[in-house]
Design goal:
heteropentamer; A mainly alpha; B mainly alpha; C mainly alpha; D mainly alpha; E mainly alpha; A: mainly alpha; three-stranded antiparallel beta sheet; 3 strands; about 65% helix; about 5% strand; E: mainly alpha; two-stranded antiparallel ribbon; 2 strands; globular
Chain lengths: ~280, ~80, ~140, ~500, ~500
Amino acid sequence: MRLLALIAVILTGGLIIFQTGAFPDFGDANAPANTYLSTYYLEHGQADTHAPNIVTSVLADYRGYDTMFETTVVFAAGLACFFLLRRKKVPGGEPRIYRHMPTGITLRIADGGKLPAEDSEVFRRLDTEFVPQQLIIKNTCRIVIPFIQIFALYVIAHGHYSPGGGFQGGVLLAASIILYAISHDLRRAIRRFSEKTAALMGSLGVLIYAGTGALCLLMGANFLNYKALAPLLGVDAVMARSHGILIVEIGVAFAVMAMIIWIYYNLSSAGKHDEGL
Amino acid sequence: MIPIDLAILTLVTISGIGALAIKDLLGAAIVFSAYSFLMCLAWAIMGAVDVAFTEAAVGAGVSTIFCVAAVFHTTRRTKD
Amino acid sequence: MTDLLPLMAAKYNYWIYTILMMTGLYAMIAKNNLVKKIIGMNIFQTAIILFYVSIAYKTGGTLPIIMEGGHGGGHGAINAADYINPLPHTLMLTAIVVSVATMGVALALAIKVYRQYGTLEEDDINHQIRTQAGQ
Amino acid sequence: MELLYSIKPLAAILVSFFVVPIIFSSKSENVREAWTFLAALLKFAIVLSMLPFVLKGGQIAYSLVEVLPGVAIAFKVDAFGMLFALVSSSLWIVTSMYSIGYMRSLKEHGQTRYYACFALSLSATLGVAFAGNLFTLYLFYEMLSFATYPLVTHHQDKEARSSGRKYLTYILGASIGLVLPAMLIIYTQTGTFEFAPQGFMNGAFSKEATTVLLLMFVFGFAKAGLMPFHSWLPAAMVAPTPVSALLHAVAVVKVGVFCVARVITSVFGTKMLATMGLGTIVCYVASFTIIVSSFIALSQDGLKRRLAFSTIGQLAYIILGIALLSPSGMTGGMLHIAMHAFGKITLFFCAGAIFAASGIKNISEMVGIGRRMPFTMTAFLLGSLSVIGLPPLGGFISKWHLVIGTIESGQIFFLFVLLASSLLNAAYFLPISYKAFFCTDEEAMFEKKVDEVPTWCLVPLCITATCSVIFFFYPQPFLQLAKMTVATIIGAPMP
Amino acid sequence: MTHHFPALLIIVPLLSALIVSAMGWINRRWCFPLAVAALSGALAISVGLLTQVMATGPIAYKMAGWSPPIGITYVIDYLNAPILVVILAVALLNLIAAKTWIEKDFSEKIGAYLALYLLFLSGMVGIVSTGDAFNLYVLLEIGSLTGYALIGLGKERAPLSSLNYLFMGTIGASFYLLGIGYIYIATGTLNMADIASMIPQLAESSTLFLALIICMAGLFVKMALFPMHGWLPNAYSNAPSASAGLIAPLTTKVMIYAMVRLGLTVFTPQFTFSRGMLSEAIVWVAVAAIIAGSLLALMQRRLSRMLTYIIVAEVGYMVGGFWLGNEAGVTGATLHIINDAAMTLTLFLAVSAITWKLGSDKFEDLQGLFGKMPFTMMGFVIAALAVIGIPPTCGFFSKWYLITAGINAGQWAFVGALLFSSLTNAVLFFRIFEIAFFEPFATGHGHHDHGPTFSEAPLTMVVPLIVAAISLIALGLYSGDIVTKLIQLAIPAGIA
């Protein structure tokens, strides 16, 4: 099997490498790919959408429809991970470990034992695998996380002018929460950003995107044609496109953030949502 | 003189094969993270800053975390 | 040798993408461990992204972020050959997102498989399935 | 020729189709059987109402949706189709009557399914009779195969399963494996399926190709039971007797020969076959079947099995008649569809009656049964005389035409085949009646007490026996319909 | 509003998926009615589109108002309008039939399940209606990703099967993406019509030819063409019953649609069929697929597994018919997309009803089923006849065109394979009928009805099944209209 695979792979690879001879050279500005369609975007992109970053304007406007489904892919992946992994009740649950905070005594409560309340301040739940106190990590993260989040917001908002946009910003926002979950523990992250929030926020994010498109439809223009939003936003058509891009980028950020966090919750706890990494 | 992008691409190949060759899944995940990061550098050099940014956040960041999370819940051992 | 070097410089990216793609493909077909397969899958996908990004590159071009001209201006003043082709970049943003989404789902399935069979090795799993069917 | 567009043919087909859900939803047995009767009578009435027009030389056409380019589900009632429709729809009435008596007296299970499938089969049969093109013909042919399967396997035991398997393998295998490819080849070459009095092939194929296609059709319509595609028929004898009667006299085998006849006359065209000399090949196949099946019939002890082999031979008569391609031969062949139907159904009714009354299936156990069941055995005698082809019974008329046909076409060999097989027929039928009536008291296995089957069974078999006699003296409208068909085919003026 | 129908067709399932997903966290009772309403709405829209197309010809819809090739265009033409209706009808019928299953299997996750269901559907609808080659890839991934999830929560080996499906699906989709890259490198555009307009100048381009091969290879993996079919039987037979009835009829068929679309509209028939070697090789692979699928189906002892191998054979039908490259072949392949979707749906609905009642679909458990579940079995019988190819069910007609195409092309192996598979299918299904009809054997003559007692599946399962079964006959009767009024208009000039 392996040999067969190797032979097949080498043959295919050889064919493809051989074919590269017919390609335009790397970096050739006169290749058909670089002269036909892209010229329009580069020459008209800024005038059409008032966004100097042409990638953003193509992403969110010219090919905004693709991006809507790109967001939907993330949303679908989040739903899929939840659907596949999430378990509400674990059959034959493992013992849980609690620390009595005033005394520092740790308790091991076997399956079926009486458990302290979820939000009890006296008893704090610990991960089953012992993790030593991580004072430095915790405090560093506590300091760094707000900056990550501010940077993420900047990335989202500044997507018109510089690399970045809703997707990257959303991932950064998610990363900040994930960092919190890793440096502290999963339960506390979930208490701050619950599963339900993630689910609803993900829906909301895609809904912002698709809803903006549908709103254009209601205004009489084609789907996702932000020009139609001009009367609502009180700006001219080009600025309306620019604002439209921002709105959908925010939607993307919402969806991506929520979904990546949700996927992380499910993957890191194998669907139990009690103990993370 | 070797152009820097060619050098990085060579490194990408090495780390890619390395990620598949290492007989420890956690190690593979980390090498894979390096692969992603090197790839993101290559793209940045080629002028694809948006793609590079995304790859840095997603490939080197989130993907690795997912991988580590999955390995954490399964096993590190592997036969190949 | 004189011919080879320019050819290498001109096509190096395409060769590397092919090698990476085939490495990933080989891993997906021949590797025994599911997580390794998933990593291979990701390498396979990033190789294709590399291919697209290579298409977009223009020697001497700069980032596709228009610097001159302001609102409504710059029409006709922009020389498209100066900027790297933005379209493949856009497409590849989508592809990256797809790859991470696929990876998430794949890992979720791998965890489920591990939960069921207690191993990630494909031959062990097949062995278990066969013995179950044999009983 | 007059052409009338009317929904009547479709209505005649659908009457029994629509009665199926009613049968399924009927609460009581009486209601169910009343509906069956109603449908049968209605169907017969619709067919009859079309008869005068057809007899005047008209045709009734109706076409449904177009399913393939140039091919619609179309119906056309011509003289030949009318002949067959008359036979099958009239016999459905008597068969229903007989079924009631038979099934009730044997307390069979699954009677609802039985009546429903029966009705469906009749729909398919009329569909075949009224088909306006080869596609429609094939459609209803296949529908009939499936509708009769639950009937053949009615008992749902192991024997029924293996017989059913055989039945479907032969019928379906032949139709998918032979008829369908033949149709496809014809369609790709001619682009049409529309029946025409002189065929629609018009020399699109070479002689070799035509031969192969012809044989594909002749054997592919395995319901016609030509050897070697015959062995499903004896196997299908596991079915309840009314089903066998239906299979042999009304629907299945007659549909088979009808299809073969249709294909020979309206697809290939008799003139083309005659010029290519292909009729003779079919004649030889049929002759072989006639002789061999008669010999096998001689050796059978099971009454139904003997009748089955007799049927195989008689079907080959019909095909022989058509394939002689001479006017009288074709008339005889077509007429034999009707005459054999009435004769053979009588025989099967009798066999069923004997089984229902005494539980006997084998001929060797029937010595002296005429004393106990005089009416049944008299009918049996009449039926067998008709099948043998002796006057004064209907079978004589058709055989007479067949014999004339062989002389007309100058193929004397087949004359001898016919005569020899008639002798064989007599040899395997007459001893039964003889033993039933004329035996010494010591030999007799039954007392002289008359103990007939229930009236529901007895009346139908008396009716059909009487019909066989009547048709000798008054073979209309069948004879006229057959003559009209032949006239259209050979292009002669109407009689 | 009617001229926005192409966009609404996608937006309605997409938006309702979001709302259903949110409803799963707020009030679960609303999820199911919402999903049904959304699908009914989308179905109505697709019917509206079909009539619009039939009245006025193809419709192009510019997403975001940018005209092609700058923006993404949706094109509804004679080819995809009927397929859209079929897809949505299949999804709606299956959703109604799956109600009891969903409530039983996924009561806690009903919101997520239905959202995935609707997303899957919007992916499928999108693939069929898009006029942009790259957009097709994104939608392909939506369809696949949700498909993995829908399968993954099934019985027994479902997670492993789903993971294998994911690997193969990703290989297929990635190859497709690569092929699009090759097209892009040669033409510089992604719009399907725009690519087609450039093909004549690039007829000799080897890059483009490789693009064709790579794209097709990717799609072949995704449609499970033999010998890349390994993932399909496991994935489909282990899928939850509620998902199997959705994914089995749609996924492979939509991929075949994509193949037809690429071959006809993107690469144009002149280019696609220009290399005789390629076409012939693919037809031979298809022949192998048909024979292998039929033989493997014979070896199965479980109803659903048997059906999955029949799907493998059916894929061979369509691929072979299309690559014969003549008019009858393309017509047959396209018609079979519609017919096979309906047939597979009916079969899987029947299996789902049987599994619901019996808890298993192994052959030996099917005894006496005709008595127990007459209506389910009636639907099953009609679908079986359609698969065998008995008129007037729809399966006959598409097979008719395919065989005609084989005869016209002189490709007798293909004709033989089709007939062989028809006969094998007959054997396959009659084996089941016999078990369900005869066993347990009756003890002899002269007994009253004492067969298995009537115990039919719930009405929500049986009614969609019967509707689907009747549609098989209706499709058959109207196949002449479908072909002359839609499919033949969709076939571009230049096909022999």
